[in-house]
Amino acid sequence: MALRGRWYTKFLRFFESTTQESMPVAPVSFYDEFFALDTLYWTAKDTSAAGATTPALLADGDNGQLDLMLDATNEKQESGYYWNDNRPIKLDHGPNIEFGVIVHTLPTGQSELYFGLAGDYVEGPIAEADAGPAEHIFFCFDGSGACTIHTDDTVTDNDAVATGVTVVADALHIFRIDCTDPTNVLFYIDGTRVASSTTFSVNQVATLALQPFMICHKETGVGLGELYIDYVRIWSDRA
Q1: Is residue 34 domain-resident?
Q2: pLDDT tens per residue across span 69-78
Q3: DSSP 8-state symbol, 19
Q4: Which residues pair with 227 in a beta bridge?
């Protein structure tokens, strides 16, 4: 393993050569390794009448990991983490967001696992019904390990664009969303650009404010799904 660096768009980005984890130099940055549950920034979403879906730290998680989970109870369930609709991440500042994610339990049935940037919280399945937050820029797993991309700025809507990447349970992957140019948002998995033949435009509102958003969701049924979030890193320009 080795640390490398290069100018990437407007930021100097150092990255680990094997995992592709970023260590950027940027005027504005945020990083959470999930050594503890930070209620200053994050709000937990726990929707379940009878199941166990409360977000929690993974016991003895390697260098700190957040556990979001659905269980086999036949009911609507959500287990998520977001910034309680505090939306300081402005598109016109060219934000990047990166997630270290392990899909511990591949989604089954109606279970969906999605994460990225979003507007205000809205309950709903992104893949099944294009519900959820009205504005969103998401990686998504729907009923399998095949990763798709969903974006919507309330005018331009891209649903279930294939990345060509299918994960296996318990493998760490690095997912990055680059909004340096909101007319052409770029997506990377493990350092490789994915879905490059699709133009993801989210510039309906140039100054759109967003928040990090990670959730496991199912409308009903006994489907399973579980995410371990290893870290979240955000960086952007100040102006």
Answers
A1: yes
A2: 999 999 999 9
A3: T
A4: 68, 103
